[in-house]
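mind reviewing this stuff:

——
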Amino acid sequence: MCGIAGFCSKTLDHKQVILSMNERMLHRGPDAGGYYLDEKTGVTLGHRRLAIVDLTETGAQPMVSHDKRYVLVYNGEIYNADSIRERLLQEGHVTAFKGSSDTEVLLEAIVAYGKEKALQMTKGMFAFGLYDKETATITLARDRVGEKPLYYGTVNGDFVFCSEIGMLTAYPGFTGKLNAQALQEYLRYGYVPAPLSIYEGIYKCRPGAYITASYPYSEWEEHVYYNLIYEYDKAKKNPFAGSFEEAVDELEHVLKEAVKSQMMADVPLGAFLSGGIDSAAVVSLMQSMQQDKVKTFTIGFEEKAFNEASDAKAIAEYLGTEHTSLILSEKELKDVIPKIPDIFTEPFADSSQIPTYLVSKLAKSKVTVSLSGDAGDELFAGYNTYWKTAGLYHKLEKIPFGIRKVAGGILDTPVFEKNNTLYRAAHCLKAEHIAAMHEAVCYDTTHFTAELLTKEFAGENRMAPKLNLLLADIEDEMMLRDLIGYHPEDILVKVDRAGMAVSLENRVPMLDKDVLALAYSLPVSYKLGVEDGKLISKYVLKEVLYRYVPKEIMERPKKGFSVPLSGWLSKGSVHEWAKELLADSYLVKDCILDEKTVNDLWTHFIKTGQNKGLLWNVLVLEQWYRKNGK
């Protein structure tokens, strides 16, 4: 795993600037660094390397193609690199490879087959910058589902790109003007969704897309090579026709192949193991394919309600892994809070970022690569919001929409505007389709959200509700919406930045394109099953797991991977930190947030315990702004 950066300028000291940008991403690539400069166009590329495959100099970057036409800076892993390498050799595109790195394979595949075909051939996670010396064209690309980050845009008229937005602080003349639309989205979701970034003029490359820009790089064009909605539609036109048992067999097969391919590394490798279904399934498959004990890692909390360490230990003992667990005190968890702006560099407020960073830090003490079970919830209906929201939607469908709309309007008044439950109920009643109801259940809080920003930053320029796909199965629609929005913008950001902060590469086997395709093709009844009148989430995935781990070990309530945020904010050191931060708010002083609304939000939380998520969003934004926004 690595960090990449680049820019085009005719006036700057290219070497000094790119080395400064490289310095800002040392955590992403502590093993080596390099840069490339084209004196004619001013195109400059930078790279920091975390060596995973081919630890020799033949894997160093920036890398020039065999024909000398292309220069590549690349962050990621191509898991099917060996098969692509073999094809290139068999077809005579390459007579011999200099090394064994997937970087060289990707680069020569682009030379041989063109950018789009090469991208479609790959199975992996990546972000890269490619410079075509012959046409003076820059191409920026991101993997199918957004595992690896990539920012781009202009600073003082210069085209720039980088792995993490914090690297832009090293670019001369960067002012970091805040994006009003991004602020609105962030306060609602706790993250800034692509293609926006927190800064004006800087964007995120969308998952499954690539950007092309020609000299002088003042404009660019987006191309889509993988579209989740299209792939879902394609799978539904050719649905899985086998029995449930056959679906379990097929899922075991494709997931096992995905795990096997992602165990490729020339450095120590392990896996996160919580007490949950997803990580247990990944670890079970890993252990089944090797004689050596898989290195597994778990952190636990002193608070029993949030502690899965004993559950993870039981799974590890049954599978026979080399297990490392660490019970963290509340102080150790809270000590991460001041580090959040440096770890994420853009406002990001999923509070599970804290334990994710700490388990990554624990894993890094013994391995350089770790596999996780992320995406199981979005692919196999793991979140209880799916079946609860679907049930509510079907009940409300029986009531004429006109009546529901009037009832919702009564609840959506100033009298009730600060009550979470009534506010969400109002918006559920007024929901015309499942997308609107899913949005209301998961993200609507109170009018506080809309009133927090001052007039300069508020307005009617919020992005439209993310998706109204009108799929046949509303549970599928919610899962797909999360896989397009929530998963890449929240879960994958958390996993990437937390791991990279300690120079750990995190991999997600369930995002393999064959696993995705199979999951799309399965009927909802295979994901949300029923046994003895009881609804079972992740039905097909659980049956795969039960082939390796006894059912009785896994049957317990889901706890998730979170911190006791309400308790922290209500009393003790975090409470005092939050109180002091809001009492001297820089965001209020600079007329970004409304002082009265901020105070009302805090007072209402202390009085009722409501709006903890929104309050955390504000606190994280305030802390980030003091460090990066000024």
Remarks:
- The mean pLDDT is 92.
